[in-house]
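Fig. S4 source data, part A: sequence.
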Amino acid sequence: MLKERILVVDDEEDILELVCFNLKKEGYSVIPADTGEKALELARKEQPDLLVLDLMLPGMDGLEVAKFLKNNSETNKIPIVMLTARGEESDVVKGLELGADDYVTKPFSPKILVARVKALLRRKVKDLPEESDVLRSHGLMIHPGRREVLYNGESIDLTFTEFGILHFLARRPGWVFTRFQIVDSVRGSDYFVTERAVDVQIVGLRKKLGEGGTFIETVRGVGYRFKE
C-alpha cells in the first residue's frame, strides 16, 4: 500500500531521478516535474501531500512557485521542502518567509532528505497545539495563561518578548524560522526591529534557561528553531 504522494521538482535529471528513487523506496507515490510551470500545473491537478522543490529552475524559479502555491487557497496547505545550493542563504530566508517549511542544501544525503520529508508529513498529520495549551518538552514546562516557564521544576523569569519567542518556537519543534518571522509572531508585523535585536533576545533567553537554552538551535544564515 502506497503512502502519501510527493511532487518532486528539479531540472537536473540525475537529481530528479535520485530523489524520486529514494522516496519510492520508502513507499511514497512520486510525481516528477522538471520546470516550475509544470510543478504548478501538477500541484493544482494532483494535490500532493508534500512538495520537494528545487529553487534553481529555468523560467519560473522555485521561489516564484512557492509564492504562487502559498497564495492560492487550493494549494497553500501543501508542505514544501526546498532544495538549495550552498551559498543561497538569502534565497532560503525568502523561501521560508514565503511559507516553505524546511530546506536541504545540495549536495545532500538522500537519507537526510527522506528524514525531513517524513518529519514534515508527521507534522501535517499532528495538529498544532493551541495557543493556550501548556507545552512540555525537554524538561521545559511553558504555561501561556500564566506566562510561566519551568525548567526541571525550577521557575525561570522571562521578559514578555523572551517568553513570546520561546513559546512560538516550542509550539513548532523542528521548524526553522527567520528572525523577522519570529518578531512578527511576538510583536506583530508593524513592529520594527533589526536582526541583531532578535539575536540579543535569543542570547538572553538561552542564558536564563541555562542547559535548557541548548534546545534553541541556530540555523546559520537563516534563523532559529526549537529542537525536535
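Fig. S4 source data, part B ends here. The chain has a mean pLDDT of 87.
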